[in-house]
């Protein structure tokens, strides 16, 4: 059965449709009674007229797919920032890109988040199932492909590169996906047959504001007046924490230093170690700059594009636009007490072990009331040392 990428859009439908829009944006099956019945039902439930139609995105191997000449012309407009994506593990497979030394390097670092992030389609999770890591020279018939990963990537180092990519994808009717650091359990920064905008190397500085008066900046009478940082680009928490710590300050951030701020973390809500006392990352955003679906750059704040400002703070990443800059609250550094509790199954009795874990979970509300917050996970004891190192780094 053939499938196409499909977009379903009509001005003003976003708020009305919600998840329905997302569902219809995933795939567009070739004409079948079943699909039309589903679409008709959704249109009826949402109160839309039957004149609204589905518009399928163009995918590779279709006549509408841009030619190599067209891609090259687009590449010239963004000063050579476009490249074809190649799976991380491809040096280990038979073919023109097979390389023993590179395969050894990939094998050694494959599970390392920082290593994966250096590739436009390197993912912390899920690792690419269509090109898994294999021993060099193993299984001559092994196949390595892109799977659901994007075909092309724009390595955006300027906002203009992002705007050009958005306009190009729209004019060529191809799917567009956005990626910062690629941390996503559900792989939502992937996109079959798509053009990817990669903002990891969009780095125009982190500016400190000793007194950010949002009232004077944004003509608002109920806004923040105090410490702040403006994050211009795809900086990670390791970058931002370092900048803040040099001034004896901190910002509400994530628990993993390799995660970026302006991408899926903030736009998905943004939980972190300081959330218990200072709110989610989304609660700490004072303003943002966003590239919209037509390529225009706008400011979102409590008084400018207020609906967009509301949406990007927890409404889901890559849904309403591409966030390229945010200004966030900062706070004076505070003393904290860190505690690591490790529970191990000494006898191999998994039932007793799970009962102990359940007892701990039941105590969480009381611990939270007492001011404790943090993270818990199940992991092999061999990794406990690295976890302790992470805690020391964050504290």
TrEMBL record:
It comes from the Eukaryota. The keyword Oxidoreductase applies. Residues 146-333 form the FAD-binding PCMH-type domain. The keyword Oxidoreductase applies. Keywords: Oxidoreductase. One of its GO terms (molecular function) is oxidoreductase activity. It holds the Pfam family FAD_binding_4. Belongs to the oxygen-dependent FAD-linked oxidoreductase family. This is FAD-linked oxidoreductase apf9.
């Amino acid at each position: 059965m053939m499938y196409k990428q499909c977009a379903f859009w009509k001005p003003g439908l976003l708020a009305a449709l919600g998840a329905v829009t997302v569902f219809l944006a995933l795939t567009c099956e070739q004409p079948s009674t079943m699909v039309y019945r589903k679409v008709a039902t959704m249109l009826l439930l949402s109160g839309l007229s039957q004149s609204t139609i589905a518009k399928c995105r163009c995918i590779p191997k279709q006549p509408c797919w841009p030619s190599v000449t067209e891609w090259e012309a687009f590449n010239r407009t963004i000063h050579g920032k476009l490249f074809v994506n190649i799976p991380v593990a491809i040096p280990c497979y038979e073919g023109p890109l097979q390389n023993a030394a590179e395969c050894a390097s990939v094998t050694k670092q494959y599970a390392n988040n920082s290593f994966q992030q250096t590739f436009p389609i390197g993912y912390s999770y899920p690792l690419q199932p269509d090109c898994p890591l294999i021993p060099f020279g193993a299984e001559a018939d092994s196949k390595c492909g892109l799977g659901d990963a994007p075909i092309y990537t724009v390595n955006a180092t300027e906002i203009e590169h992002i705007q050009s990519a958005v306009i190009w994808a729209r004019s060529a009717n191809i799917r567009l996906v956005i990626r910062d650091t690629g941390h996503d359990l559900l792989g939502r920064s992937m996109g079959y047959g798509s053009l990817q905008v990669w903002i990891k190397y969009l780095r125009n500085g982190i500016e400190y504001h000793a007194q950010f008066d949002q009232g004077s900046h944004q003509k608002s009478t109920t806004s923040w007046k105090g410490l702040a940082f403006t994050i211009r680009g795809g900086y990670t928490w390791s970058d931002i924490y370092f900048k803040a710590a040099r001034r004896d300050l901190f910002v509400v951030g994530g628990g993993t230093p390799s995660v970026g701020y302006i991408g899926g973390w903030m736009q998905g809500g943004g939980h972190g170690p300081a959330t218990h006392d200072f709110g989610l990352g989304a609660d700490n955003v004072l303003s943002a700059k966003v590239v919209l679906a037509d390529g225009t750059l706008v400011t979102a704040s409590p008084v400018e594009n207020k609906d967009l400002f509301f949406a990007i703070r927890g409404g889901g990443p890559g849904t309403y636009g591409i966030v390229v800059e945010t200004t966030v609250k900062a706070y004076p550094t505070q003393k904290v007490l860190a505690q690591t509790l490790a529970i191990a199954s000494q006898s191999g009795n998994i039932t007793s072990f799970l009962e102990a874990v359940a007892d701990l979970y039941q105590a969480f509300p009381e611990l939270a009331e007492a001011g404790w917050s943090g993270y818990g996970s199940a992991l092999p004891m061999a990794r406990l040392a690295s976890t302790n190192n992470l805690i020391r780094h964050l504290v």
